[in-house]
Amino acid sequence: MLEEMRRGILASFGAVVLTREKIESVCQRLVEEAKMSKEDAERLANELYEAGKRQWTDLESGLKHALRSAMESIDVGSHQEVKRLREKLESVEKRVTLLESVGHVPHDKEGNRR
């Protein structure tokens, strides 16, 4: 009977991840309605909670993989790459500012100041 109820509850909630409080609330109601023993309700609550955590982890992993694939296919830099480039640019800006302050302004190939 426990297995049938577990399947029924899982089927009725589908892939929705339930919070621990909601699971315990549903199981407590089943105990109060004498449809299940307290021990079975606790076991069911733990199984549903663990199943929900696994589903969430699987969903999260799948989404991360899909997003990485999408980012690679459109050739967009990662957060770390953009951060590194920003740091390099800031370093170059500081060096140019320092060179300008001492009168060493860079020139292009024709000798013009930049």
Description:
This protein has 114 residues and is mainly alpha-helical. Helix 2 runs antiparallel to helix 3. 7% of the residues are buried. The mean pLDDT is 77.
In short:
The chain is mainly alpha-helical and about 110 residues long.
Which features characterize this protein?
114 residues, mainly alpha, 4 helices
Count of helix runs = 4
Helix content: over 70%
Query: What's the count of strands?
Result: 0
N-to-C series of helices and strands: HHHH
Taking all residues together, what is the mean pLDDT? 77
Low-confidence stretches: none
Shape: rod-shaped
Distance, first to last CA: 81 Å
Structural class by sheet pairing and helices: mainly alpha
Rg, rounded, reads 30 Å
Strand content: under 5%
Tell me about the largest β-sheet: none
List the helices and strands and how they pair.
Elements: H1 2-13, H2 20-32, H3 38-73, H4 79-101
